Amino acid sequence: MKNAVVHIVSITVLLSxxxxxxxxxxxxxxxxxxxxxxxxSFGEYRPGHFHAGLDIKTWGREGYDIxxxxxxxxxxxxxxxxxxGRAVYLTLESGETVVYAxxxxxxxxxxxxxxxxxxxxxxxxxxxxxxxxxxxxxxxxLLGYTGSTGNGVPHLHVEVRDQVNNLxxxxxxxxxxxxxxxxxxxQLAVVPLSADARTDNGFLPxxxxxxxxxxxxxxxxxxVRARGRVGLAVAVTDRADGAGxxxxxxxxxxxxxxxxxxxxxxxxxxxxxxxxxxxxxDYRLRRVAGSDFHRLYRAAGNTLRFCLPAAANAGEIVCxxxxxxxxxxxxxxxxxxxxRIEAEDFYGNVSILEGRITAAxxxxxxxAPESPPPVPDSDFSLGSECYGDAIxxxxxxxxxxxxxxxxxxxxxxWLKRAVPLISVDSTSWQGRYRWLxxxxxTITAELSARxxxxxxxxxxxxxxxxxxxxxxxxxxxxxxxxxxFIFPPGAVYxxxxxxxxxxxxxxxxxxxxxxxxxxxxxxxFFRQGTLRLDLPAPxxxxxxxxxxxxxxxxxFGFVAPLSDPMRLExxxxxxxxxxxxxxxxxxxxxxxxxxxxAVVRTGTPRIQWVCEDDRSGLGGEDTxxxxxxxxxQIVERLPHLNLCRVILFAPLSPGRHRLKITAEDRAGNVTxxxxxxxxxxxxx
Length: 684
Prior knowledge:
mainly beta, twelve-stranded antiparallel beta sheet, nine-stranded antiparallel beta sheet, 3% helix, 47% strand, globular
């Protein structure tokens, strides 16, 4: 056997990513009197995007003051039931913009701007742009009060945008906290990046728990081996003094034999780059392992400026005796390469994970035997999953194997192909079947072995799959041919093997329905796909039906109504499980205040109600309305509380008043509630 060696892909010289701090940052005012404890940092993972600023703890309460960081003017005001909720945009004299989000209320001076536009448009959700001369402020002036609008969790979100609207880490603008605690490593991952790459988990990523060896020092829990092109990723968290929350590190650096090989620094971000969070992080590992893994290599499609170097394949490591994909071969010691990963927070606290990666032997692949081998008298199983452009099959026998089992893949009516296997551990063998043909097809894999007494036993696994191409896109069709998921060109950055499944499910109101499931669901897709379903589908309910995403057997998310009796077509964010479900139950209206027949002592009473719908849900503002004495009112909805409340622009006159509340769900079911109350003469 040839000597095992490890070499690494050549990269360009690393450049520092400096973020200039304007002189105006000196002496900026802390944005709230709630305290200086942070709950989220800049650059943290959020589903589909980076966290754009800092979150400041408000101790589960609302109503703390919010202050202008510096001199400038309010350039934008937003009122919304989602996203940032109530938000104020402050443009500083130096040109940066500070965004304050999730407010419970605006400063009194801003309220007339909001109410005027809400009254003019007849709706709660508004965006207002102001001129520099309309609402000027000085550092420390009141802008509003902390809350939970748009999010449901009380806190203050603060972000800073530079003169060209790039997001900048607010720590660069003097928004500092006390932090004497270094980051903590959780796990190291070795990720296969080429068709022939292998790890200690076969053809799938291998995970190694991080073990502390000294303060600030860590190492992998086991020796790290791999073969082919691989990348490293780490799950790492950070803390700050007095805060129980976990944060992302500020900087990560990968060193190979003391040479800096890859760097990520969360300093600044273009707004249109935020969706690339799932290229900086490993989306699949997050779903599989439940942790936020930072890639220490540049994934295909990653154009983020804070990941350096910018070259394709940057940070990759090539294990084995072949040549690197490009560039020079790095000097290799007989026992592999030494790697060092430094995790640093903004305040210079550093932790280090060190280890060695060695090349796995080249002869661990075993050709398939000509006949089924014997195994102990116990059952065995065959599992499969799509990884990149291949299917990875795993054969497991709890009692172990005397020799490799026989794995055959039938990819045409007349041909069975033997799949070579590698040993993962004493109970598992793994094979990789690369998908090379265009179009969708169904293949069956058969795993055979002989149990004690020479009785032959075979288990099988059938897959319907198609290759999704980055340039051309692709499509998946359900086994019954009725439902298709269409990927447009550019939906993926690397070839992805997709699968189609089908099952039946008993659902309240709808009876037994057909669920169409498409995979993979552990990959990020960069353009919306199209789901097409021929109608009527088997088991499709009559009446008010719609397309739903099946989250689990009892939880569903509304996607689109059925508007065409012959075909449903809907834009969807990515592969998932879908079904046509019925919704015949209208929304509920309860907890109306003031209660029917009540007498209130003020002309500006609190008017609110709870509105809930457990299937299709409520739609836009026109689907939940209230009229007082026949006049429509402005309604603020708090989705996390299922609460609707009226914003009164003028006091009600003394005497009796009639309420008419209407709620319509997205299936068209309507509820109407009518009641009345009186304002006493004392309410004048």
